Amino acid sequence: MRKSRAQTAETRQRIVSNASRLFLTKGLASVGTRDIMAASDVVQGGFYRHFESKEQLIAEAYQATVDHVFAMFEEAIDGKSPKDAIEAIVTMYLSQSPTMSEVDLCPLSALGSELKHEEKCIRDIAMLGHQRFVDLIKAQLTLLGLPQARIVAMGVISSLVGAVTLAGISPHQATANEILRDAREYILRDII
After folding, report:
1. Burial of 147 from C-beta contacts in 10 A (0-12 / 13-18 / 19+)
2. Which residues of the chain fall short of a pLDDT of 70?
3. I need a surface site. Which of 31, 38, 64, 101 has the fewest CB within 10 A?
4. Fold of the domain spanning 58-191
5. Phi-psi domain of 145 (left: phi exceeds 0; alpha: psi -120 through 50; beta: other)
6. pTM of the model
């Protein structure tokens, strides 16, 4: 029996959602299409009915994750002053942890080291997400009247992604907390 278009779309969305979660928590190289299809309760042979390749799925999953993270940022800063908006974004970003919902994690810090080994189309999507993040911070800095808002925004993003990445690999929670605390203080006290 053939599935309706709505059922096919729902199945595809479920696959993308599970792929996002698995990629963010286990990494791109560690997760195979078999893992994703099993988590989605879809037979392995159904993968190619929905996607041309694993790379296409990675690209779609990455984009879906970025869209979700930015929806959270936009909701968090709605109606706030530029300074409060930046503080909200910085606090949210530095609050990423394994206890958070996997879909709330930023793929730049969760997958950054793996992305450099991926195909150009995936790296391009990652860089579009990065640029979107820079533009979000730059807009708030511009409203604050900071000179060279784009350069400062690039520095803020680099500090955020780097701090979360380093905290994530730290073997000691105390060190991870110190990295995140110091990054927050540096950005909010010394930059903004």
Report:
1. exposed
2. 1-3, 97-104
3. 101
4. Tetracycline Repressor; domain 2 (1.10.357)
5. left
6. 0.87
